[in-house]
Write a structure and sequence with these properties.
This protein has a three-stranded antiparallel beta sheet with strand order 1-2-3, with no helix packed on it. The protein has one helix and 22 strands. With 466 residues, it is an all-beta fold. 1% of the residues lie in helices and 14% in strands. The radius of gyration is 35 Å and the shape is elongated. Among the domains are: 80 residues, no CATH class; 63 residues, no CATH class.
């Protein structure tokens, strides 16, 4: 009868099984002066492929083997991970904090590389998760957590910088967005284009409408709505020369209208004094750099570049009511919070922070919690249980959708009906009510720019007005 148990010398043979002395061999129980009878009462032969004690568990699947040597051929070999699995050689994991050299290699506990690699008792000696195997190296119940992966499997943008929560679960990186609304200099939506739809200076000019160019998918700055090589007499500097409506009719005053904003650019046309076509009588929505509703404030509620910068939180500035001042809610002069943003607008995100997953949720701002104590993940300051109209370019409620219910520019156009679109629950900017597909104005009596070319009704050549 072969005796392949957790000691190396078979001293007697009995009807019930092998009798061994633990003192005579090496391995996990080396140095213990005791005799152990291995019979059918408990699993002791841990590498013979037989359920010796009849409990339905074989070898390392049996808890009786979990802390015992599982091969007489490899002194000191134990069942992998201290439980079910294959044998692994060297210093037993269960004995990495007993001040003994259990495998006889001259190294004790965490001095032994076997322990440093496989036991969390040796955390200071390198108990970290390795990404080159399928083993729970740091013994936290997860395999390969924190290892790199490719979110969505497309290999572009921030998706290529994702990490695993565990094997087979690649979570969205905390700068991921379904659209490119953050305007932070990276490819947030992983389509191969950076900051498409974000503001840029057209033809490198910040004068007139050129300050409102829009970045396209090729990273080129496209012409803004309202741009023209000649003036349109609409209260805008269309040709970006620093002068508004040169060569147009004489400026006049419309009765009942204040002499400010675009109202101060009314012109004589056909014997009457008319307001320019970019006048908005109720609310500012065009975000074109002028005071469209003549209330003394420019582009209130519109996105703006805080301190003239477009990086990070500065690119998420918003003009406030009633002054039109550009403020950035998440700007910090020095970065101190972990929220997935470049708060100090220096091109680096969350420097000095240790991110963690708030509420164990890896989406949106929850992926940018701040580790303030061992296993204590602090709530990100931008977190809210529902988006609730918080339009800041972040997924605040961590449901995978950014700014649902918030206004957006349909097809990146900031004039007319396109400036009144709304982000739906899937994160897409939906066509606004009244929008005319095809870019041709056909509703010529509703006082709206339905085809988003900056011209309303009879000012638009599409309308055949008498």
């Amino acid at each position: 009868m072969r005796c392949p148990c957790f000691v190396s010398v078979c001293v007697s043979l009995m009807l019930s099984g092998c009798l061994f002395t633990a003192q005579s061999g090496g391995g996990e129980d080396a140095g213990v002066d005791a005799a152990v009878e291995v019979g059918e009462s408990s699993e002791q032969t841990c590498d013979d492929g037989v359920d010796n004690d009849g409990d339905g568990d074989v070898d390392c699947d049996d808890t009786n083997c979990a802390r015992k040597s599982c091969s007489a051929d490899v002194p000191g070999a134990t069942c992998a991970d201290g439980g079910a699995g294959d044998c692994v050689g060297g210093e037993p994991v269960a004995l990495c904090s007993d001040d003994l050299d259990n495998d006889g290699d001259g190294l004790v506990d965490c001095e032994d590389p076997d322990c440093a690699r496989r036991s969390c008792a040796c955390a200071a000696a390198g108990c970290v998760e390795l990404c080159d195997n399928q083993i729970d190296d740091d013994e936290d119940g997860l395999v390969n957590e924190g290892c790199p992966c490719d979110y969505l499997g497309i290999g572009m943008g921030v998706c290529s910088q994702a990490t695993q929560r565990e094997v087979g679960r690649c979570v969205a990186p905390y700068r991921y967005q379904t659209d490119e609304s953050a305007c932070d200099g990276v490819d947030n939506d992983c389509d191969g284009a950076v900051d498409e739809g974000c503001l840029c200076p057209y033809q490198a000019s910040s004068l007139g409408v050129c300050a409102f160019g829009v970045t396209d998918t090729r990273q080129q700055c496209g012409a803004p709505a309202g741009y023209s090589t000649s003036e349109r007499c609409d209260g805008l500097d269309n040709n970006c020369d620093g002068t508004v409506d040169e060569g147009c009719g004489e400026i006049c005053s419309v009765p009942g209208q204040p002499n400010r904003g675009v109202c101060a650019q009314a012109r004589e046309r056909g014997g009457s004094c008319e307001l320019p076509s970019n006048h908005q009588p109720v609310e500012e929505t065009w975000c074109d750099g002028v005071d469209n509703d003549c209330d003394g404030a420019i582009d209130e509620r519109c996105r703006c570049a805080f301190n003239g910068r477009t990086e990070g939180a500065c690119g998420l500035g918003q003009r406030v009511i009633p002054t039109g001042e550009c403020l950035a809610s998440f700007y910090q002069q020095e970065e101190s919070i972990c929220d997935g943003l470049d708060n100090d607008c220096d091109g680096e995100v969350d420097e000095g922070c240790t991110p963690c997953s708030y509420l164990e949720n890896d989406q949106g701002v929850c992926a940018a919690g701040k580790l303030v104590a061992l296993e204590n993940c602090e709530k990100p300051p931008s977190y809210t249980p529902d988006e609730n109209g918080l339009c800041d370019g972040l997924d605040n409620d961590c449901d995978g959708v950014t700014d649902e219910g918030c206004p957006c520019l349909y097809e990146g156009i900031g004039v007319g009906a396109c400036s009144r679109a709304t982000i739906d629950v899937t994160g897409l900017c939906q066509p606004p009510m009244g929008y005319e597909i095809g870019g041709v104005e056909t509703l010529c009596g509703d006082d709206r720019d339905n085809d988003c070319d900056g011209l309303r009704d009879c000012d638009d050549d599409d309308c055949d007005c008498v």
